[in-house]
Write a structure and sequence with these properties.
About 30% of the residues are buried. Helix 3 runs antiparallel to helix 9, helix 10 crosses helix 13 and helix 11 packs across helix 12. The longest helix has 27 residues. By secondary structure, this protein is α+β, with helices and mostly antiparallel strands. It is about 55% helix and about 10% strand. It has two domains: about 170 residues, 2-Layer Sandwich (Beta-Lactamase); about 60 residues, Orthogonal Bundle (Arc Repressor Mutant, subunit A).
Amino acid sequence: MVDFSGHLSPIALSANPRIVEAMTRVSDVRQALEQVSRAYEFQGFLVMVVPGKTCGSLSESVVMTNWPQDFIAAYDAASMMAGSPVIERLRRSTVPFTYDTVQDSRRRSDGKGNAVLGLFERVNLKRGVYIPVHDVQGTRGAVAFGGNREAVSSGELKELTFMAGYLFSRLSEMKEMRSRGPAVLSRREIECLHWAAAGKTTIEMAKILDLSEYTVNHYLSRATRKLDSVNRVQTVAKAIRAGLIS
């Protein structure tokens, strides 16, 4: 699991080649987002797909969050999305921005400003940041961090923007891999899993396949991510059940 408990700069994060290999499950992304929230003193996070004009429900747009479920239910029950200046800004802009419910509630034209303010204050989500993101398929989303801390600095916003984009992309990849199923495994990945099932070590597989040990580990790590497994043993078991190897 990648440790996001400290303030990782974009340079430090992108320079670590182990990060992509280490994050293999959706739960890893959730844990990383929770670590980022704590590190920057937020109450929690929310990952969402930017809702279209016809969408009136926040719950329909949420992909992952640790914000209270009763908060989201109350938000939807009061139909607060329709007049939200934050949602409208997400629809028309790709620039990260901070939010403050005291200020934003005054900009509403539907008369629900006080209700929105009370709801956000009750769960300590009064201030935070929204970061527009997108994946390789072109899906537009946003990662939000909310709490009761002071406004984020420009430096913090840059760091959060980098990490939000990275984590959203990883989450999208995992969901895409899952939707495609086992058929996405390459020939080399299947070959490595076949020999792993036969009890061969990485060194032995490298000799058999005329590959470097690094390349063998790379193929096995990719197969582990694609099959949403925890380790090599579970990956082999899933490949056998799926009929990819015998």
